[in-house]
Fold this protein.
Amino acid sequence: MSTLDVRADVFTAPVLPPTSPPVFDFDVAIVGLGYVGLPTALAYRANGSRVLALDASSRRLRTIAARGADLLDSDRARLDAALREPASFRLTGDASELSRAAAIVVCVPTPVDHQQVPDLAPLRAACATVVAAARPGQVIMLTSTTYVGCTHDLVEQPLRERGFEIGGDVFVTFSAERIDPGNAGFAQEEVPRVVGGATPQCQEEGVRLLSRYAARVHRVSSLATAEMTKLLENTFRAVNIALANEFADICGALDVPVTEVIEAASTKPYGFMAFYPGPGVGGHCIPCDPHYLLWQLKALHVDAGVITEAMTRIAARPRRVVDRIRDLLGRAGKGTLGTRILIVGVTYKPDVADLRESPALEIIDALIDAGAEVQYVDTHAPHIHLDSGRERDSLADPAAFHPDVVLVHTRHHDCDLSWLDGDAVVLDGTYRSSDIAGRVLL
Ligand SMILES: NC(=O)c1ccc[n+]([C@@H]2O[C@H](COP(=O)([O-])OP(=O)(O)OC[C@H]3O[C@@H](n4cnc5c(N)ncnc54)[C@H](O)[C@@H]3O)[C@@H](O)[C@H]2O)c1
């Protein structure tokens, strides 16, 4: 079968007798080659490991093979090198090959649905595949962000049910990925990793696996502690972003420049960490991860009022942007009907092509619903599909659109705004475009 064929559904491989010596063709298999998994596979390969790179999507595998994945330049160079060595970097859609790897690292998505309920289907499917393919001697590590107890439920317990001794003949660990896609300032290898194991032996195997490329590994006492650590990290970000947004609105009401306030507060060397306001949050982490915790807490009838409120406020932020545009137009005696509105940057953050949960998509749909004529410009996203089913292409010549309102939503490092001619109202959703004369803050 071709290496690009897909066969990632669950299959059942026999458990080998415990006496079989573990002989593996690959040092590590990566399951899920997205924003996390592909750089992880490349980091292992760059550090000398033989890597089996598995994805359930044949389209994704073709994109990677064609060097079309959204990567940092440094990872693109690694991918070029890896693809030249197919014996030590094998792209595959065939899940039965997992039994050829000494370690398996799971990096599949953990999104939420439209009701913000965790969608565990991809993780369940991936774990079922891994469990079915498990062989004595393997180390299995989950790195997807998930609820507390998930590694036990989806990996440890099913392996026990298959007759494995956990910590004896297979090793189960959790270490959430902390990569920041598009950010070249923090190399993946340099960001410390937190690892927990089902047993002390599992933890040690997890440390050994991560130490192949990670400079620092921090041990925690259990799988649950490692899972909760990631939930705290991203809940902390969510709550602080909600607070930064609120401060922006407060500063606006009191006519104080919020960015200057945050930068001034940042001079305090302890007890303060800068978070900046914006038009909302996107990507696969902040809008999703805290919901894994809230979903679990709801079932336990545990109150988490601060987190719940922060997530509600965050979800409402794009609507706040739309209201602000209406307000600005209203002050000029205009409405949204027929108004030309240009969105600058639609990805959820600078220098990535990731549109998942991007607030821009909701903002554009809401403005079109309100009768505005809306276009966008973004060098990283040539085409967008909106939830409403509408589609748009990035404008080649934004000046020719003659917008009445420009919303600066995301500024990539190469964002060119030299065409702005002063006729449009420019709403700075980033709060940090101080180079634009006459802009108004969100
Ligand atoms: N994107 C980030 O910034 C980031 C950062 C840190 C942690 N995380 C976490 O890492 C995990 C992965 O996120 P991502 O952004 O890389 O997701 P992604 O959507 O970019 O990639 C996931 C990949 O997994 C593949 N996949 C899905 N089900 C599969 C299966 N059963 N078998 C094999 N492949 C399968 C998909 O085809 C896709 O290519 C999530 O839990 C996320 O919360 C993401």
Observations:
- The mean pLDDT is 93.
- Residues 8, 31-37, 54-57, 60, 107-110, 122, 125-126, 129, 144-145, 177-179, 181, 283-285 surround nicotinamide-adenine-dinucleotide (CB under 6 Å).
